Each structure stands twice: as C-alpha cells, then as structure tokens.
Amino acid sequence: MCGIAGIFSYANDHPIDMAQLERIEQAMIARGPDGRGVWQSDHGRIGLAHRRLAIIDPTPSGAQPMHDSQRGLTITYNGEIYNYRELQEYLRSKGYELRTDSDTEVLLGLYAVDGPDMTNRLRGMFAFAIWDEQNRTCFAARDPYGIKPFYYADQDGCLRFASTVKALMAGGDLPDDLDPAAQVGFLLLGYVPEPNTIRAAISSLPAGHSLTICEGGQPRIEEFCRITDLLRRPIEGPPPSLEERRERLRDALEDSVAHHMVADVPVGFFLSAGLDSTALVSLAGRGGSVDAKTVTLCFDATRGTRFDESELAEMVGNAYGTEHHTVEIKQSDFAEDRDRVLAAMDQPSTDGVNTYFVSKAVRSIGLKTALSGAGGDEILAGYESFDQIPRLVRRLRHVPGVATFGKGFRIVSGPLIRRLTSPKFAGLFEYGTTVADAYILRRGLYMPWELTSVLDPEIIKSGWETLNLPGRLRHDSAGIGTLEGQVAALEASWYLRGQLLRDADWAGMANSLEIRVPFVDRVLLDRISDLVAGPARLTKQDLAALTDNRMPEAVRTRQKTGFHVPVRDWIAEGAENKPERGLRGWARFLLDQVDA
C-alpha cells in the first residue's frame, strides 16, 4: 500500500518538470512513510515517483520505483497482489529470473512475459504504471473493483497521474475549476462518481481498466474486467440446496481470507458487532485461536446505547483469543483532528470519518494493515435496498402510464410532501418502475428535482447531462435475471466503489494503514456469482451459519443497525458557520469546504 505518481511528456520533446513531480510525491507522505523514490528516464520525458508503506518484502530490495534493467522496464505500484507467490512460480516456469520476494517484481515479470494481458492473472487491489523503454510506452491499470485509486490529468500533451486528486493539484499547473458533474453527483449520492473527480481537469481511471500511452500517440483506455458482467452470466442447472450454497460460500470465503492474510508484517482486524467482520475473525481462526489484534471503535456519545458495539465486539475477541482493543473517541478527540480529517478527505464524502478514526486507532497499536468487513452487504443482501427496491418495482412496473402520472404527481405534490415528510415520497411513482430509477430514490441524498435549491441552474444542466446517472444505472443493472441481482450490481459498482472503498483508501492512508477487504475479491465473486444474482441467493443468515460455536449468539442473531457516527454534529459544533443538521447539511458543508 503506497502512493504513486508520474509525469509523461508524451507529445512534447522537452523534459518534464521534476520539481513538480516531487511536489506531487511530497503531498502523499502519509501514504508511504517507510520510504520514497523518484526516477527520471535518461531522455527526461518521463518520471515516476513512489511513497512506500512496506507490507510485502519490507527489505530495501522491495523499494520503488523498481527496475528491470535488462528489459528496460520501470514500475511504480500501489496495492497488494495476493496470489503473487503462485505467480512467482508461473514466471519461473517461463524462465523469468526473480531477484526479490516482492509482489512488485512479479508485476514487472508479468508485463515482460504477458504484456498488457497480465491484468487477467492478478488477484488483489492495485493501481500501477509501467514504463516500457523499448517500446517507449507507459502502461497503467487499476483493479476490477476499484479498491485502489488512479487519478490522471491529460493536458497539452502531458499526462500526470497520482494516487490522490489533492496531490495532483499540489503539483501545480492544473486549473482548479470544480467539475459540474462531480458537484451534481456528490449532492445526489453523497460521493463523487467516477470517472469524474471534484476537479474538472482530473479524471479517475475507471475500475477494471488500463491506460496505454505511446510516445507521440494518444492515451488509450480499455476495459479488461467489469464486475457486473460476472453477475450477468447465465445460470444453468437446478438451484443448489441450502447446504450446497453454504458450503460454496464457506470454501470461497476461507480462500479469500487466507489470501488476504498474506503479508510480511502482522495483520489485524477491524471488529464490530456485525456479522461481516466477526465472520472474518471466525474464518481466520479455523477452529483455533486467532493470533492477531482486533480493534473496535466506540464513541462516548453513544456508549451504552444500541449503537454501541464495543461490548459484543469484546465478547468476540475473547471467544477467539485475539488481542482485543476498544478505543473510545470523545468530541475533544475529534476537535483535535478536525482539520486533519478534512485535509485528508481527498474528495468530498458524506461517510468515512468513522474509518479515519478506527484506522488511527489500529495504527496506534503498531499495525500497518487490517482486514475490514466492507463488501459483505453487497454480496449477501445486507442492505434494506435488497428488500425495498424489488418490492416497489414489482408493485409498479406493470401499471400502465405510472411513470408519466408519477412525474405530474411529483410536481404537484412535491412542495406539500416536503413540508410533511421526506421529499422522496413525491417521487415514488415516477421512480418506482425500474431498479435503476428506484436506486436513485433509495440511495439519493438530494433528489434530482431538489438540486435547484443548492446549485446554480447552469451547473445542474451541464452536470446532469454529463453525469447521465439514470442511463449509467440502467446499463450497470441490465441483463441480470433477478431484481435482487440488479440491486447487488448497483450496490457493488456504485455505493461500494464510489463511497466505501474510496473512503477506506483516504481514511486508512491518512493514518498510514492498509485496509484489506476479503469480501471485495474478483475470485470470490466469480465462484459465487450465481448465488448473488440468481434466485437461490445468499443472505446474512448463510454467513451466520458459517461461524463456529464460539461465536456469541447475541452477535449471530443481531439485527443490522448501521454505524452511528456523531462526528457530523461535532463538525457543526466546530464550524464558524454551522451547517444544518443531518447528511444534507454535512454534504453542503463539505462542498463549501472544497469551494473555499
């Protein structure tokens, strides 16, 4: 887990500005406090930089940028390749001589052996760029789920890239205009949807895509994996029995957890009282104690309420023999970190502050990496959306003219409904006939018709057209047989990717902590995709059944409560101009901070 950066003057003969590259690299110190490296080619037209958080092969031999001088290859890489040991054997069978025990060198070797097709062999989270001197080509790629970020700016024949938007801006020479589609998307969803970023000059390389630039050519972006395509595969044969479903889930999850435990430093766990994180601890134990540290976060404002998970989490830690730590956060603690939190938040997000504090707690006990239960709800139907959206669509999709009637109903009734209850109720008929539209209704922060109260009409018009949210949601959910499977596709490719994983990246990296997510694994999804998208689908009850008898019954049967974070109120307390309470006020406050 690291920070990467690079500049490539692909259409100009003059050398790049190395001072600019170093400014970008220096803006990411927290992502890699264990070391740094900056490299420039002999001809001066490309430079790569790296900040290192040493997890696999923490010796100096794993430092970056890393070179294969024989083949003229140089790489800067952020992430972890969990199957790198199997890939080492593959490379040796092809005659590639390895000099280190790092997964970084494996990437160099795969590119030398397989070229751009190397991405199909990778299991893990990654964002990297490889300079190929012989072909004068830069090849970059990002993992299929988009766990690791890759931001770039293409301006005047020069490509700049980095792990954060703010680092690219720190380099200079980029306009700071806000992107209209990003502003609209943020207010609709609570995060900025890719490929847009909050800065108009900067884009996000989409998940599961590669970027290739040849000297004198033009950037070419190609897709090598789309997670939602795994959910579109035809389902053949009779539905598996309950026992078969659970056995397949157990095998796939145990395999994923084992791969995610691969490291040359101790690995810990984020531990809540929810099934996802507790199941990871149980599966890691495999009948014995878990030789790891577990950490639970609690807030003094919620201590003793139904939102307090600390007591149950401590029971889990004791049951599995972990070294358990409960860290309490007070309002005064937040006040001390308030400015650091806002500075670390690379793009505005209405979530993630809790991840910042639990990451800080985990780092404080000496860990560099920890496993998180993020992603379990998306494959195990853990959100209310899996029930609410299909139920609404089944009731309305066959009613003739309901969407047209619904638009009129929303226009007439909207002002009154807003004074009485949630404005979303005004859109039930208009947005209730397809999963894509109902997803906007369920996940929306502001509704599309409310944006005029927040943004300039010209920004809304331009941003809405570019964002094309309804069309993209329909595309990502099309071709999936069940309504619940369509919801799973949207939750994974939007909420999980756009908010949860991005928040885990900035919040973890702000504290120099690598967050690993075993539920977010292409191989895992490939093995159980029919059980996620098909009629015989998995649920949290199936996950609970995989835990052994050491799991406290109160955890096994606990209803999902969500994670209550009082920091939004704390921010309001510390702000000069206090925002309105709730997520909407929090969103407007964050957008104001970006624009300040």
Short description:
With 596 residues, this protein is an alpha+beta fold. It has helices at residues 18-26, 84-93, 103-114, 165-171, 180-189, 227-230, 242-260, 275-285, 310-320, 331-344, 353-364, 376-379, 385-396, 402-420, 435-443, 457-467, 469-477, 483-509, 522-533, 540-546, 553-556, 567-574, 582-595, and strands at 2-8, 35-40, 46-52, 66-68, 73-81, 124-132, 137-142, 151-155, 158-162, 203-204, 209-214, 220-223, 267-270, 293-299, 323-329, 369-371, 514-516.
The major beta sheet can be summarized as: 6 strands, antiparallel
Coarse structural class: alpha+beta
Measure the end-to-end span: 31 Å
CATH class of the largest domain: Alpha Beta
Output the strand order for the largest sheet: 2-3-1-9-8-10
CATH topology of the largest domain: Rossmann fold
Name the CATH superfamily classification of the largest domain. HUPs
Give the count of helical stretches: 23
CATH architecture of the largest domain: 3-Layer(aba) Sandwich
* Total DSSP E strands: 17
- Average pLDDT metric: 91
Total domain units? 3
In the predicted model, the low-confidence regions spanning at least 5 consecutive residues are: none
Principal-axes geometry comes out as globular
Q: What percentage of residues falls in helices of 4 or more residues? A: 40-55%
Radius of gyration: 24 Å
The portion of residues forming beta strands comes to 15-25%
